[in-house]
């Protein structure tokens, strides 16, 4: 037992190792391979897996409506509590009728984007009238996420997938444990606490997503994004909305939530150092 | 021992620009009993003539289910066919597992083409000794019928036949090709049986044991037609039941068939 707390969690030292457990057991990187995600390690160091995300995105919202699916996410990538990158796009067009939105680790999202893009290019190159539709991409994403959690090295995200296929609107989410979930409304991260009740209430009042017009749905999502910005300390006022309908995908330019909020209360507040 | 000095191995060209070993493999397909495939706008039907090696032997299986949306008929070395059908089934399961999508027939067929091509270019290998008819259906592009041969040719057809005396079946198919697109399941099967009958040896008949029919199509998973249903079709065939939409259209077919048999020298 090493009784020096400063050594805890660090690779053991060969000279001072009394139980001769150094070098530690580790995955050898296969020959000719530089580095595979979740495989191998710097020499002499134990294999380590992601145990927490680093640069993160917060909530992603998704909502079905009459003619399609809407998704919304802000443009912030936080480094801990620091608002580090303010112009990151967290909604990504996968195909003509599919959009993926990501909360959680941004670099893992970039990796998954790369996988999906590679997959779609393969489909395009086959040039045989077939392409992966939203439910197929969802299944693929599910396999990836479950596979990685089974290696005890999950991709630290909750993904939202929205799309239209054969006249059906599709909205689903998959978390870092590979749990798939489909619902007329979806909110990840802190948004699951803040936005889910609003979205579900609105859907209940409308009597289902098929009674929701695009205008109503968009208004509702913006309202949810506003609440998320006001109450979620990892969120940003800058956000984008994606719409997937039978016409295809459109992802908006970034919008600003600030004009929708009122901050003039502070002008008359006295005390508290003001 | 060898027919000539250029057929010792797969990768040696003859001065005429031929690869003899590949052509021998194509001969192996011709020695298998016949298989016939026909495609309409909604369905594909695949039929085959089963052989048995003797009075006491069972008939060799000729049709294989690959997936719900796909089936094949084979002519040639059955053991090679089993390897290929195993591969096809595995690829279909992979597609279901990974994408929850039935593997499009065109993709699987080109994969088989790639496998077969490797066997025609590398020293020390041998081509597959089997020809396949692949019938598949998918929501996006409808029914398809493909032929895969040992020379790695994979072609799509509206109607095709392979195996022994398949030229006779082709003659029938060409004669009625215009009727296939609009034919319903029954008509397609009857056309198939008529074509298959052309491939029979003298004084042999189609019966419950030697005929095999498989069908796949719109809202219809791959299915073998056996037992009473097969018997019903065979009875119709025997009774001169027309596959053709016009009863008169069938009569010249029968006439033509006898002529074809007379000309057949295979």
From TrEMBL, chain A:
Residue numbers spanned by region Disordered: 1-26
Subcellular location: Cytoplasm; Nucleus
The keyword Cytoplasm appears for this protein: yes
Gene Ontology cellular-component annotations: cytoplasm; nucleus; proteasome core complex, beta-subunit complex
Alphabetic keyword roster: Cytoplasm, Nucleus, Proteasome
GO BP annotations, alphabetical order: proteolysis involved in protein catabolic process
Protein name: Proteasome subunit beta
Organism: Actinomortierella ambigua
Protein task: Non-catalytic component of the proteasome.
Family per similarity comment: Belongs to the peptidase T1B family.
Domain of life where this protein originates: Eukaryota
From TrEMBL, chain B:
Low complexity bias (residue ranges): 244-253
Organism: Actinomortierella ambigua
Record's GO cellular component terms: cytoplasm; nucleus; proteasome core complex, alpha-subunit complex
InterPro entries assigned to the protein according to its UniProt record, in alphabetical order: Ntn_hydrolases_N (IPR029055), Proteasome_alpha (IPR050115), Proteasome_alpha-type (IPR023332), Proteasome_alpha1 (IPR035144), Proteasome_asu_N (IPR000426), Proteasome_sua/b (IPR001353)
Signal peptide: none
SUPFAM superfamilies: N-terminal nucleophile aminohydrolases (Ntn hydrolases) (SSF56235)
Location in or out of the cell: Cytoplasm; Nucleus
Annotated region described as Disordered, given as residue ranges: 241-266
Protein name: Proteasome subunit alpha type
Stretches of the chain forming a coiled coil according to its record: none
Superkingdom of source: Eukaryota
SMART domains named among the record's database cross-references: Proteasome_A_N
BP-aspect Gene Ontology terms: ubiquitin-dependent protein catabolic process
Keywords in alphabetical order: Cytoplasm, Nucleus, Proteasome
Domain Proteasome alpha-type subunits: 6-28
Family: Belongs to the peptidase T1A family.
Subunit structure: The 26S proteasome consists of a 20S proteasome core and two 19S regulatory subunits.
Keyword hit for Amino-acid biosynthesis: no
């Amino acid at each position: 037992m090493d009784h020096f707390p400063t050594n805890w969690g660090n690779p053991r030292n060969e000279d001072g190792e009394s139980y001769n457990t150094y070098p530690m057991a580790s995955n050898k990187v296969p020959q000719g391979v530089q580095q595979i995600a979740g495989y191998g390690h710097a020499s002499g160091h134990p294999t380590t897996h992601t145990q927490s995300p680093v640069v993160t995105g917060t909530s992603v919202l998704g909502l079905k409506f009459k003619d399609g699916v809407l998704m919304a996410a802000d443009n912030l990538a936080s480094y801990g509590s620091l608002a580090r990158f303010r112009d990151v796009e967290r909604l990504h067009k996968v195909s003509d009728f599919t959009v993926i939105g990501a909360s959680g680790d941004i670099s893992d999202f970039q990796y998954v984007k790369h996988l999906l893009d590679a997959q779609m290019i393969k489909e395009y190159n086959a040039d045989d009238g077939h392409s992966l539709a939203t439910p197929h991409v969802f299944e693929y994403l599910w396999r990836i996420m479950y596979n990685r959690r089974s290696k005890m090295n999950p991709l630290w995200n909750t993904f939202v997938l929205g799309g239209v296929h054969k006249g059906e609107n599709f909205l689903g989410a998959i978390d870092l444990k590979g749990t798939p979930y489909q619902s007329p409304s979806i909110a990840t991260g802190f948004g699951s606490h803040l936005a889910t009740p609003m979205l579900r209430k609105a859907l209940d009042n409308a009597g289902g997503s098929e009674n929701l017009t695009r205008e109503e749905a968009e208004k509702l999502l913006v309202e949810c994004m506003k609440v998320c910005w006001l109450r979620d300390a990892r969120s940003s006022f800058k956000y984008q909305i994606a719409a997937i309908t039978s016409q295809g995908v459109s992802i908006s330019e970034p919008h600003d939530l600030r004009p929708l909020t009122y901050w003039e209360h502070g002008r008359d507040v006295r005390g508290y150092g003001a | 021992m060898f027919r000539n000095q250029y057929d010792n191995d797969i990768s040696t060209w003859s001065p005429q620009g031929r690869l003899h070993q590949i052509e021998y493999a194509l001969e192996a397909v011709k020695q298998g009993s016949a298989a016939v495939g026909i495609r309409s706008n909604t369905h594909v039907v695949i039929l085959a003539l089963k052989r048995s090696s003797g009075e006491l032997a069972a008939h060799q299986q000729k049709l294989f289910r690959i997936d719900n949306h796909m089936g094949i008929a084979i002519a040639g070395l059955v053991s090679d066919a089993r390897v290929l059908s195993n591969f096809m089934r595995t690829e279909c399961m992979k597609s279901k597992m990974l994408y929850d999508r039935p593997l499009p027939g065109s993709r699987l067929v080109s994969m088989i083409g790639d496998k077969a091509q490797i066997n025609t270019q590398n020293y020390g290998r041998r081509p597959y000794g089997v020809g396949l008819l692949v019938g598949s259906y998918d929501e996006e592009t409808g029914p398809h019928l493909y032929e895969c041969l040992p020379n790695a040719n994979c072609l799509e057809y509206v109607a095709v036949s392979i195996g022994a005396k398949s030229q006779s079946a082709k003659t029938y198919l060409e004669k009625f090709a215009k009727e296939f697109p609009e034919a319903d399941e029954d008509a397609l099967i009857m056309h198939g049986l008529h074509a298959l009958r052309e491939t029979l040896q003298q004084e042999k008949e189609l019966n419950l044991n030697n005929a095999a029919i498989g069908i796949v199509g719109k809202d219809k998973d791959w299915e073998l037609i056996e037992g009473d249903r097969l018997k019903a079709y065979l009875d119709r065939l025997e009774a001169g039941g027309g596959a053709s939409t016009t009863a008169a259209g069938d009569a010249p077919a029968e006439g033509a068939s006898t002529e074809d048999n007379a000309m057949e020298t295979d």
